[in-house]
Amino acid sequence: MKHKNAVPRVVIALGGNALGKDPKEQKEKVIEASKSLIELIKQGHEIIISHGNGPQVGMISLAFEEASKVNANIVGFDLPECTAMSQGYIGYHLQNALQAEIYAQQRPWFVASVVTQIEVDSEDPAFKNPTKPIGGFYSEEEATILMSENTGLVMKEDSGRGYRRMVASPKPMNILEKESIISMLDNRFIVITCGGGGIPVVRNVDGRYEGISAVIDKDYASGLLAESVNADYLIILTAVDRVAVNYGKADQRDLERMSVEEAKRYCDEGHFAAGSMLPKVQAAISFVESGEDRKAVIASLEKAPLAIKGESGTIIYK
């Protein structure tokens, strides 16, 4: 059912790479990002923020992995816990920057992060073909030994740099904290949620949830979030101002608008790379098709306020 709030509700998906390579750079970047995000509220929108965590969760996982090799008192953490840690410290930086901007503008808003679990299907085909690399690099000999010692561990060669652990990327099904998120939205909160695609969990036979080593694509999770909170807009922020066909070629064409039908055709024609623009466009298509009067925008972070007014970015519509 459509929410009754007259204020347009907007889910904003921030890319993990847009947050920098380390905590210091991340702090600097989110200060700039907060200005664009607050501008959207000043325009009369209610915002929910999701974010990627690719560089950050890799850094956390690698730190524990390497530290445990030299100090037996330091234990390694599995991927669900590393994702939760990344949600915490990225959320902290975003909260801090947004609170400073809210205070500077003397606005009556609150901001909070939600450690978010997302249910996935334990029978998802992705678990039979892990494709997402995480953690450090190993030689072929080291990888072979590790796989022999750990049943279920999959390690593959990654771009000529060595062998890395591969994990599955299942599709998101359900956001466990969605009711809490909606309640906060209804009480003047800017909510930061679904960080890194969410912590993937599966339901046991007794009805309880437990974490599973996987990586949910943050664009698909953001699309599900937008559907779950009955958003009016899904804005996916990336490194380019607009989606393009024939990207990087002499006949590259930037798109101001594309219908769902056009977007599907461009996907089928192979215009969008599987590891970057394709999941963004597919998430946009799914969201737009999920309800009436829903629009998605793919744009750059710096031009987010212009994008929602149709002055930048690519609008995907039904």
Which features would summarize this protein structure in a list?
318 residues; alpha/beta; Carbamate kinase; 2 domains; 8-stranded mixed sheet; 4-stranded mixed sheet; 9 helices; 37% helix
How is this structure best described in words?
The protein has 318 residues and is an alpha/beta fold. The chain has two domains: 9-121 and 173-317, Carbamate kinase, CATH 3.40.1160.10; 130-167, no CATH class. It has helices at residues 23-42, 54-70, 79-104, 140-149, 178-185, 218-228, 260-268, 277-289, 304-307; strands at residues 9-14, 46-51, 110-113, 117-119, 132-138, 155-157, 163-167, 174-175, 189-192, 199-203, 209-211, 233-238, 244-245, 253-254, 257-259, 295-300, 314-317. An eight-stranded mixed beta sheet has the order 3-9-2-1-12-16-17-15, with helices on both faces. The chain has a four-stranded mixed beta sheet with strand order 8-4-10-11. Strand 10 (199-203) and strand 11 (209-211) form a beta hairpin. Helix 2 (54-70) crosses helix 3.
Short structural summary:
37% of the residues lie in helices and 22% in strands.
